[in-house]
Amino acid sequence: MRPRRARSARLAAVLFLAALPAPAGAAAAPVVDYLYADANEGSASGGHVAIRFGDEVFHYEYRAPRMIRLRRDDFDGMRYRYTILDNRNLVLHRIPVSEDTYRRLRDEFARRHLVQEQRLRTHESLSGDRRLLTALEARLAGRPASEPLVLEGVGFFFEEARAPRLEPGPAPAGATALGVLHDRVEGAYGSGFVAEMMRQLAAELLALAPAGGVAERYHDLLVTLLALEVLRDARPLRPGSLMAAAGPPLEDAELEAVDRLLEALEASLTRLVRSERPDRGYPLLLGMARLVALEETRRSGRWTLLDAFAPDAPSIPASELRGRSMLTRALLEEAREDFSAARARIAARSGAGAAFPEREFTELEAAGNRVGEITVAMGGARAMRLPSGLRVPMREAVLAEPPMLPLAVSELDRYLAHARARELAHEAELQDLYGYDLIGRNCVTEIFRTIDAALAPVADVEAARRESITRLGGHVDVGGTLNFIPTVSARAVRETYAVSETIEIPSYRLAGLARLARSEGALRVRARESNTLTSTLYQRNPADSAFLFFTDDTVATRPLLGAINVVAGLGASVVGVFTLAVDRGDLLRAGLRGVLFSLPELAFFNIRKGSLIYAPRR
Amino acid sequence: MKKVRPVQLLSAALLIGVMLVPLGCSFSASSKSSSESSASSSRSSSPESKETQYRNDVRDFTASYLKSGGRQDEFRRRLGDLAKEHGITNWEDSLVTYEGIGRGLGKAQASRVEVDTYTANLTNGDATKAKAIKDGYEAEKG
Asked: Which residue on chain A is closest to B39 by alpha carbon?
């Protein structure tokens, strides 16, 4: 069958998600988008591809060590990462399909994603066994563990995780939120319920057999025991658990909403204490920490939230913020809008008798953390942690001295050897299934293999080809072709499948150029924004190479500008040699990479486009 | 024949190296699961859409788990991981979870006995949760 040439509708103007129809609306015929993000230096320097079903995007990423991992992201998150932060152009080839084809394709990608996630979790569980037994061995030998065990949620109440204390601690002074919760739990399930449950779980912990999966059970029991200890003793939150910045004052209507949230959360935690979930310890700790924060919100009349940043959240120094005041203000404005919207959603979902709206509350925490973080950082007091470091609050604590299992040293050694062998065997299995290969198994090849598998569930190449031609308008081969290269694959999709439309979402800089040209005049904007020294759209990202001229929006002068960029890169490298002791080689590396990524420009190719450390999403 | 100078050789090698770079793909910034970045991800979707996404994820997970087989404890733990990706840690308090489980049972074409077993094990006698599973199951079976 001859390839069908697509009708290409190129939208050159600034095109944001709001204006971009999502595939597969309820009434419209379903469509699948093949996404191509063009090249830039850094991650995916050769471009990247993905497949989109509605809000869901599936794509295969390289993951160390040499593994290809299927990821699922929401489309807006992907657009933000690639077109805004990475400053790349995104091209969508839209392919109309039948309901049945849409379902088959989407289900196969979703299935493979779930199966791989399950295998990776199994591997994490096997690694956990090895880490636990190694830590126990280290404890027996009286030395610190090389990989200390970490317990999530415990850091809200303990500086360091430890074995639970079965004897009650000192009673807290006055009534506290956790004291009230404890009374409610004992009222519901009987006096002494918490202490009795602790005794049972402690006995189970100390009798655990070190078979496969022991680390997960050990971890679950320990976290649950510490959560019950917090509840029994009504332990206070540790300093630093709450956001440093005071939140905005509560509005009148919110006072009642906070009361209802407290009541709903208390009821929810009361049920959770007696749940059969093996992993209830962490949600119990998080819920209790939230209860304390909400109590403080009610007492102070201002929103008080848990700190939701990961300990390794990326951050930029306060000095760097000064050169990005416009962007930072825009970021703050966006965070405030999101926080206001989250407050409205919380108020709407916290009616009398309603369940605790946890998902909405997590969003409130995230937006509130963004507002607080930017506000404090703009004051110049400290570095700003970036929103990419936000998550459901976890506050891990290190378990320095893991409680011992009933094992002799020789037994421990034997179980540890088994655990290591199981982990290695599983790792080999994963490599066999998902090992990365630049040409044979990469982000492109796996998308087309998944499509083939969806269309012809029994591995039959000819059947897959026939089905693909019938359902998608053609078949894209990956073996023996150059289609494993992202940009070539995008062309193959456009020329092979029945593509109804091609949509281009311009990069952050190109969209900005178009916007500025309309208000200030094209020539002036072009001159000012052509280089990194006078550009208002670009502020140097330390992760970028050293360069002077942008070449992504010009073709005729690209070799000339590329030559100047080579010289700029060489110059930066020379200076970098002298600053080696001060910057640990940062400038030298940036200079050398500047030279490297300027070379294609001499031959009319553009890879580097510059990137952003942070930017508002909208 | 004109002699090739070392500088030209070096430039050619560099050029080839750079030309090979475009073959690569995106790489994960870290090995963290998607749950850890969920809180910072897009908030542009409507609340209804997020609820549907969560329900569909529970559906797909349940269907996949049922096919591969496994213990109930394991099911609960993995469901906890999945719910966390959506900002939910106490998933037992959300009826959407149970509707998703019901839909997953329907999608996997579970037998009546399997549906009853899941319902008994997961709802702890809570009639509202049991009804959510039943409704989800019937909706998916159509």
From this structure: A391
